[in-house]
Amino acid sequence: MNRIVIIGASDAGISAALSAREYNRSTEIHVLSADNFPNFSICGIPFFISGEVPEWQNLAHRRIGELEAFDIDFLPGHNVREIDAGSRQILASDPAGTTKQIDYDRLIIGTGAVPVSQKIPGYGLPGVFLLRFMEEALELQKFITERSPSSALIIGGGYIGMEMAEALHRRGISVSLAEIGPTVMPTLDPDMGEILREALASRGVQILTQTPVAGIEQAKDTLLASGQNGPIGSFDMILMATGVRPETSLAERIGIHTGTAGAIRVNRRMETNVSDIYAAGDCVETWYRLLDRYDYMPLGSTAHKQGRIAGINAAGGDMEFKGIVGTQVVKIFDQVAARTGLKESEAESAGMTPFSVRLTLPDHKRYYPGAQDMHIRIIGDLKTGRLLGAQILGRIGSEISKRIDIFATALHCGLTVADIAELDLSYTPPLSSPWDPVQEAAKVWLRHEKAPTGVFPITGKT
Ligand SMILES: Cc1cc2nc3c(=O)[nH]c(=O)nc-3n(C[C@H](O)[C@H](O)[C@H](O)COP(=O)(O)OP(=O)(O)OC[C@H]3O[C@@H](n4cnc5c(N)ncnc54)[C@H](O)[C@@H]3O)c2cc1C
Is 324 in the pocket of ligand 1 (CB under 6 A)? Predict the structure, then answer.
């Protein structure tokens, strides 16, 4: 085996290329991408639009020259049109439209995901944007700079919609956000989402819950958004952030199997059902170790890890993807919301017996200046005592993401709630308490394990 070809130069594709090179110094590696922005941080787009990252070029994880120093051949602007698994070749159009035929011994598909928002009538009108790739970010930036919109509607109250609400607000735009569900951030339990909704509303973002947007029309200089029950309002621009679907068209045409949410089915070695073809990132199903099954959870953190496994295995190694536990974090204004594992409703649907407590605790000893309250929800299984999930909401600077990572590590290792209370975690008054809030939450769970799920306001206890 001496030639690896990778389709896609984002998180999964680049991670695969670098890991393959690290594992095998002599293999030939070629990476093709339809776009012209290899190895850019899509996750950073909201911070470029907000102005916090002033130059789009700064979003590059690595410049192309740095990547080529690893002896990897990059072909940006190359759209792969066909895979011929029989003769082990791909056909790609280069930027001039010329078709190139490239042989492979092992192929890695990292074609990512595409937005689903096109289903809303009005998609394509000037001033209506999607936000998935660098090209779209640059278009949006140009529009805001040249047209100075004063009002915007964001469709979708997930983490991208929320990050963009802050970004546009920072640009002086009056922001409304329409969410189909009862509150924002459906990846959190509703009471936690509600706290986040209030935090956004207090900054002047208008949050319209249970507001499905049915269509958009051009009305003179503005865009009119309407729902099932009539008009929602008129806006200078509209951003659709209603989720993604896996980009699997190339794979499906050669009989690669798909599964959950139409994503490519892979085994834990990131192999598809077609010999010597691997896949990773937003285009594949993800092994969800907590539920012992595959799911679809497109995230950059996961794409990097899956890409590494695919790259190492394609280069001759033998590694398995250990799976995710559903960990995610987002910063909105000065608030940070993080989750890992299952929500109570998800645990119930999976046939578990979840019991959860929510409490409010200071992030460090109250006597030391700057202590901030954080809300913690911990979910455990009443039958087994196992930790099932956790959610934390609080201020930036309160180590929210690293605290959720303690829970994520516990979930990865299958710890019980009682085990968490026993962990040897660090303590100094400016940063924590002798019982870190994570452990205090575990102790409260253990104390109330026999009571109904509830909220336990123990502010000021530690
Ligand atoms: C605004 C925003 C913010 C985000 N923030 C976070 C965050 O904070 N944390 C987090 O974990 N995740 C975040 N994500 C998600 C994260 O960006 C994705 O999970 C990640 O980019 C997926 O990487 P990927 O390599 O699988 O696919 P993609 O990034 O979708 O890249 C796909 C690649 O495939 C190429 N391609 C597709 N089809 C072809 C073809 N036919 N021929 C050649 N090339 C092709 C594309 O050109 C591209 O290079 C965010 C996403 C967005 C949009």
Answer: no
Q: Is the CB of 161 under 6 A from ligand 1?
A: no
* Interval 75-109: pLDDT, tens: 999 999 999 999 999 999 999 999 999 999 999 99
Distance 350 CA to ligand 1 centre (A): 29
Ligand 1 atom closest to 9 (CA): 49
CATH class of 128-242: alpha beta
Q: Which of 5, 6, 7, 10 to mutate to test the pocket of ligand 1 (most atoms within 8 A of CB)?
A: 10
| CATH fold label, 3-112+245-314 | FAD/NAD(P)-binding domain (3.50.50)
Average pLDDT for 357-376: 95
pLDDT at 408 over 90: yes
299 in ligand 1 pocket by Cβ < 6 Å? yes
Is the domain spanning 329-447 CATH 3.30.390.30? The answer is yes
Q: Where are the domains of the chain?
A: 3-112+245-314, 128-242, 329-447
Confidence at residue 220, expressed as pLDDT on a 0 to 100 scale: 86
pTM passes above 0.85: yes
Residue to substitute in 19, 61, 111, 139 for testing ligand 1 pocket (most ligand atoms within 8 angstroms of CB) = 111
Model pLDDT for residues 310-353, shown as the tens digit of each residue: 999 999 999 999 999 999 999 999 999 999 999 999 999 999 99
With a 6 Å cutoff on the Cβ, whether 79 touches ligand 1 is yes
Domains 3-112+245-314 and 128-242 share a fold: yes
Atom of ligand 1 at shortest range from CA of 80: 42
The pLDDT tens digits for 289-312 are: 999 999 999 999 999 999 999 999
CA distance 274 to 196: 45
